[in-house]
Amino acid sequence: MTLRPFHLAFPVHDLDAARAFYGGVLGCGEGRSSDSWIDFDLFGHQIVAHLDPSARAVAVENAVDGHHVPVPHFGVVLRMEDWETLAERVRAAGVRFGIEPHVRFKGQAGEQATMFFLDPSGNALEFKAFADDAMIFATELKKVAA
Question: Can you give the residue ranges of the VOC domain (predicted)?
Answer without folding.
Answer: 4-130
